[in-house]
């Protein structure tokens, strides 16, 4: 493991012993097979057990994780490429936001046809404007308050962020189903997919005129996985 930017704590659990390491930019760690690993910074901690450490989970094709998000902080927006996630709030309260992808131009139910005729008309215009009747993808925001006992089902490919309330930490237990060959993609923080884009890819995606502004926005976040919340006014601790 190589720390590209920032600092934090890495904890290894192996052979019944716990080892903690303070890491910062430039550090390299070798993590033995079978070790249980969790990462932490001032905004939260994340524990995870995969099928590599637990044969029973491998048979179930499942990973289990526990996120403890400090009050006023958030877990960076991310999505799973293959696994569907079931998240259960164990403690605290806050809210989650999900970007739900929709493909326009699909067949609509009779109820939608009656209630959303104008929306269908806009979608038809969008298809015609795209040329050749190709379907276009858009994202709809889903946002809801969560508290102890809340259950969230997050399908694969749906970017989601968890935000803790200002009064107490938010603890969330996550079960990732269909975990084999799954990748977790972060969209913010020092380990985000945008941080890993090379210059030609960024120029193609955002254009040359916006290059400096894009680099400034992408590089502004100095933490990974757990970040300061959008409305936080205090220094978080876990």
UniProtKB/TrEMBL annotation:
Biased composition (Basic and acidic residues): 110-119
Chain residue ranges for the region called Disordered: 101-141
Entry-linked Pfam families: Cupin_1
CDD domains xrefs: cupin_7S_vicilin-like_C
PANTHER family: CUPINCIN, OS03G0336100 PROTEIN-RELATED
Protein name, UniProt field: Globulin-2
């Amino acid at each position: 493991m190589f720390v590209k930017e920032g600092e934090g704590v890495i904890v290894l659990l192996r052979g019944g012993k716990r080892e903690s390491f303070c890491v910062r930019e430039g550090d390299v760690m070798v993590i033995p097979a079978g070790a249980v690993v969790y990462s932490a910074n001032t905004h939260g901690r994340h524990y995870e057990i995969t099928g590599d450490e637990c044969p029973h989970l491998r048979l179930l094709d499942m990973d289990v994780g526990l996120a403890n998000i400090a009050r006023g902080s958030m877990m960076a927006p991310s999505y799973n490429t293959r696994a569907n996630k079931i998240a259960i709030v164990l403690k605290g309260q806050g809210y989650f936001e999900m970007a739900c992808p929709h493909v326009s131009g699909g067949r609509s139910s009779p109820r939608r046809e009656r209630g959303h005729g104008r929306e269908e008309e806009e979608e038809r215009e969008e298809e015609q404007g795209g040329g050749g009747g190709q379907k276009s993808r858009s994202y709809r925001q889903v946002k809801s308050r969560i508290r102890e006992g809340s259950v969230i089902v997050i399908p694969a490919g749906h970017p989601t962020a968890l935000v803790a309330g200002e009064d107490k930490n938010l603890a969330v237990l996550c079960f990732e189903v269909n975990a084999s060959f799954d990748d977790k993609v972060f969209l913010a923080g020092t380990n985000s997919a945008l941080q890993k884009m090379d210059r030609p890819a960024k120029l193609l995606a955002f254009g040359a005129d916006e290059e400096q502004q894009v680099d400034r926005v992408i590089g502004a976040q100095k933490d990974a996985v757990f970040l300061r919340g959008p409305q936080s006014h205090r220094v978080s601790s876990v």
